Amino acid sequence: MIIPSALPEKAFLSHAPGYWRDKNVSPSDWNSSTWQLKNRVTSLAGLEEHLVLADEERAGVLLSGNKLAMAITPHYFNLIDRVDPDCPIRRQVIPRIEETLDDPAEMADPCGEDSHMPVPGLVHRYPDRVLFLVTDRCASYCRYCTRSRVVSGVGEQTMQLEHEMAFKYLEQHTEVRDVLLSGGDPLLFSDGKLEGILKRLRSIPHIEFIRIGSRIPIFLPQRITPELCQMLQRYGLWMSIHTNHPRELTTEVREGLERLANHGIPLGNQSVLLRGVNDDPDVMKSLVQKLLMCRVRPYYLYQCDLIKGSSHLRTSVSKGIEIIESLRGHTTGYAVPQFVIDAPGGGGKVPLNPDYILQRDEQRVLIRNYEGEAFEYPEPASVAATELAGVLR
Ligand code: SF4
After folding, report:
1. Is position 257 within any domain?
2. pLDDT in tens, 336-381
3. Omega of the bond prior to 17 within 30 degrees of 0, cis?
4. Are 76 and 63 in the same domain?
5. Residue with the nearest Cα to atom 1 of ligand 1?
6. Contact predicate 242/218, CB 8 Å
7. Distance, CA 274 to ligand 1 centroid (Å)?
8. Is 393 considered catalytic here?
9. Domain presence at residue 1
């Protein structure tokens, strides 16, 4: 299939080999997920080899070691602007000194996951579905990660990585019909290890729906091999990817997503609203429209969780509502994600929308459309009463 990429702001650009050009990386190395993982940028020296860092970034890198590790795949690193510290890509993965700021509203576990864990690694907050945290490692680390207390292995807590208790819990709890595999990033596992987990889940008769949450299609598209897609296809699952900025959707990413879609894997995207990254209606519009071109349905736009050290990345809630207002009616309905806040402390997702209801009583609802025009919709009871009055007259 040929996906158009004609409009410049929506162009899918390849970024291989970018900064690595002078290192003579062979195409076979570049296209290998093993090479990409081995050559991640993980140190200040590695960053400074390629970038001019701001003081805030240099200090942030030096202090990030016991909070959330820094690791950036060469593929993703190539998207970074060399000199601009406000680059939306580098804000997502390069630590800044602001991460050490103390905001009393922020928490290590902002979604209250630990208090909803009946067994280690399994979050059971909603009646019929669970979040199964299968690993604490990712291809690259997002500075706003909701699970930075455990992810990357250097934070405040460690993650239980033994899965047997979770499988036993799932076998016993017949009310669970939906399992989301996350972490960390499950696609970091080898095909064989991931298949072992999927096989075990599929052997539990009451589990109807399996999803994988992954940012690997964005950080490491080289991992989306035909063999992986063929294996996933056997287990009839869905995938939630995570992308925040249109520049992240490169030709390599688009090809990986297309490969997944061609293997019958329905794709949704979750974005996090981040200051200086995507808190702009035009940026979000370009992102969601590009996602549709990659056959990915924009699904959620999250208000950034109250994770410790995230104040420089969080926006006001009204910014998210403004973005949804700028999309709804102005672009394809499929492209409009649901804006949500994951209620602090563990209340679950709460949808937030622009207010389209101007007035409402028993007889009618006064609504406005995306252009601000008002319309009246009569409630069924009043229609029935009017009809009845006409018959009786
Ligand atoms: S990929 Fe997901 S789990 Fe990993 S650091 Fe980013 S947000 Fe956290």
Report:
1. yes
2. 999 999 999 889 999 999 999 999 999 999 999 999 999 999 999 7
3. yes
4. yes
5. 215
6. yes
7. 14
8. no
9. no
CB 237 within 8 Å of CB 198 = yes
- The response to whether residue 138 sits with its C-beta less than 6 Å from ligand 1 reads yes
* Residue 184 near ligand 1, beta carbon < 6 Å: yes
Which tens digit of pLDDT belongs to each residue from 207-250?
Answer: 999 999 999 999 999 999 999 999 999 999 999 999 999 999 99
The CATH number assigned to the domain holding 155 equals 3.20.20.70
Among 298, 301, 281, which residue's Cα sits nearest to residue 332? 298
Which one of 87, 111, 145, 304 is the catalytic residue?
145
Does residue 208 sit in the same domain as residue 67?
no
CA neighbor of 216 nearest in space, from 199, 234, 245, 239:
239
Count of structural domains, the chain: 3
User: Is 305 an active-site residue?
Assistant: yes
Residues 195 and 265 in one domain: yes
Q: Do 33 and 122 sit in the same domain of this protein?
A: no
> The domain containing residue 36 runs over which residues?
8-98
Measure CA 263 to chain center.
21
d(CA 150, CA 111): 14
Inside any domain, residue 346: yes
Q: Are 197 and 51 members of one domain? A: no
77 & 212 share domain: no
Reading the block at residue 187, the tokens are 């696609």
Q: Is the CB of 302 under 6 A from ligand 1?
A: no
How far does the centroid of ligand 1 lie from the alpha carbon of residue 218, in Å? 11
Instruction: Answer yes or no: do 180 and 255 share one domain.
Output: yes
Residues 323 and 367 occupy one common structural domain: no
Active site residue 138: yes
142 lines ligand 1 (CB under 6 A): yes
Q: What does the block give as tokens for 51?
A: 């970038």
pLDDT digit string (tens) for 87-122?
Answer: 999 999 999 999 999 899 999 999 999 999 999 999
